[in-house]
């Protein structure tokens, strides 16, 4: 909405003229004031060639000063009018300016011997006046070198101060003592008037729109009736290109407004063929329009000095005189110096004002911030701000404020109606600006007329969140202003004799009064900064409160599932601690050779039951880790072709037991050697295929493996056999070793597994539910056991590997699960050797020193377990109940290794380890102890942080005896004797040893041995093999008393021959 046109009040003519579009004030901005092609006549100008100093251009008035015609100097070296010594000095000055890093400062004064120039004139009778002294000014730009020469004889007509330095020191001291802007600007005009003797000296300050106001003035008594103080001048009085020159040149002098301009010969630069840029020249001729402007004001001489604050033209010191007046170089330099000091003082005044205001702002913000910090997350921000209503208004000097948080509205002070404020908030959401301000809202937003005067000014801060937005709005009322212009600011055209309109400077400077409506007091920059800072403060609070709100909503939506997960995660953690003692002691008892078969059998039952419980707990914890975002990949290089074949071999017999046909199709594009998490991928595929076999009673299960893409994440696509054949045919021509050119460039491949069955199918409404934790279809609950975690964990694992799982199914027609993952491409050289099975440790090897182990554990059962284990192996053992005891024992006993529980009373394992590491560093211990962390926690993400606390390694509870013993050996260098190992030393050869798999005739004998094992062991072994859970299989093998059977099973496991293990367990499934 546009503002109402301003009402004009004037003592003069109020008739307005219609200015045609082609006659606009923007023409002033385009006036070529840098290239007037003329100079003022009080000096002469030469344009020189680089290096040779050949005179390329010269001002036409050279004859008046030197008695030479321009043609006599053009093409001549500068030595024609100056001695070689002086020319050499000019060359050095030019070179220094050319290498200057300050483009805006490539001008320099030069000193000239007056005898040199004055003595060169051949026709002394044409020289208008003898020159007693000269001053020169060199300007160097990219395409020209300008030398200005000004006789300094004009200094005699100026009032010379007895001691300029003393006066300057005096004035600068007064500037520094000035209290406030008014006092400072009054000091400035007084000082310049005393130095220059001008009739009138003013300080002219620019507004943000570059109109200007006279804020300080000193004048001769005869001019007091025509004061310019308080008058505002439109921005067009000093157009943009003029302001740019004021920013680059500190001063500008016009000794005689009525001068006749002097041309330059030739008109164009001989080398560039362009008009000469005189932007930096002191003698540059003034725009005719500006000269007419000054004459209309009754000014015959002027000087301007720039006031520059933070690289912005803050204002001008404008000097006027009613008669022509020259200013000596010393006085002009002194005035420039005062202008620079005044600029610094203006900046200091601005900083002081801002500091005072910001101190008030900080105090107000601190009050609000402290209240926010003390508030409960559910405590609304608007409630906090309402406690500080007056402070909120004082923050930006507003008369009203509104706080809009979603649909909640709080009004403070003088504001528009609630409906209008809500509409404003909606409008601000569309603008999407964090901070917005205007002092004339009516020009941009329509308010009811009755409310416009309350909200002419608007300053707002907005916080945009994903589902909501928060706003704080400040209002200022209309401030009707009566502005006094120096003449009609809109009347800038004159009617010519032919009736046409043309731009001309104003001829009348009578006070012209303008009444301005629909505007508030403008918002100051420091007030806007204060709004920005409050925005930052509230943004943090809003994010915290919003997060709390989102968590609360999510918690309410998933109460049952989350409560179940949290409860199970907590309980599983608590169960792992006693399981550590149960499983540990059963393993220790196996060391006793005197146990009867019945006792070993019962121990095996205890151990298997504990392991089964641990397996269930781990599944639950896996789900908890997924929800906590703590799942990580354990990547390595593996043979994908062998992986696919092992899946086929492992599950073929299981399918045939149900009279199902298991088909595996693999396209030629599938790479052989890949990089990824083989264990997680195996879990995913076995779960999908296992489910397909489980829910299919007739028909077949098909696994189709293909390579969809070599670049990034590919969408899931279910291809027909015909499409797959076409795709394969297209890429075969570009294949290298089974990997496409695209894949070799991207170094990744998107591998897709399709598992299809002819089973019972799934209802479409259950597609999402089957991937949720603990959810099963009705058929699954009725006919099959399980926790309902398999598909949920599989999908999360697939997503962790850069892919996903989707299902396509029709009830009664079967299902297809489509899984794709991102795998890196590798070669056979990247394969790692298979992990060797751990051997049972019997004792420390002979011929070694004694090793001391400090056990730090607050649970007595776990402490006793470690004592029994370690003393059996012949370690020296000492125990501590908490971290404080551990530190004291370390100081006295100096153990080689410390087994440190993490969570203990008094002092936990973290603090104890940090203290030990700090003390060992202070005494520069040669052999510091190895510290191995022990904890039953598997959900926490602390493992990666343990090194920063000083730990060397980590073992999870419940631990396997061999695992903890190998960790001790790794960090201390201890050597062991192993069961059935006649050597006193261990085998140090770590190269992979390929062992032939078991012969076919051995399978029957091994099956009978396994059938002799307890039923619980058989069930656990059966599930472990089907799930390809290597660690679990190794634990079960450890329980076997028959060494030949255990060794055969370890051989199969070491070579990942799950197909042979599958054949061995088939009779167990019955």
CATH topology of one domain: Beta-Lactamase
Task: Give the DSSP E fraction (strand runs of 2 or more residues).
Answer: 15-25%
Q: Count the strands?
A: 39
State the helicity in percent bands. Answer: 40-55%
Low-confidence stretches: 1-27, 118-125, 154-159, 491-504, 711-745, 781-786, 981-996
What's the quaternary structure here? single chain
Fourth-level CATH superfamily of one domain: GAF domain
CATH class of one domain: Alpha Beta
Question: Short description, anyone?
Answer:
The chain has 1070 residues and is of the alpha+beta class. Helices cover 40% and strands 20% of the residues. The protein has a 7-stranded antiparallel β-sheet with strand order 2-12-4-3-7-6-5. Strands 24, 25, 26, 27, 30, 31 and 32 form a 7-stranded mixed β-sheet that branches. It has a 6-stranded antiparallel β-sheet with strand order 10-9-8-14-13-11.
Folded structure, characterized:
This protein is of the alpha+beta class and 1070 residues long. Strands 2-12-4-3-7-6-5 form a 7-stranded antiparallel sheet. Strands 24, 25, 26, 27, 30, 31 and 32 form a 7-stranded mixed sheet that branches. It has a 6-stranded antiparallel sheet with strand order 10-9-8-14-13-11. Helix 18 (678-694) runs antiparallel to helix 22 (790-800), helix 24 packs parallel to helix 25 and helix 29 runs antiparallel to helix 30 (1030-1038). The protein is elongated and about 130 Å long.
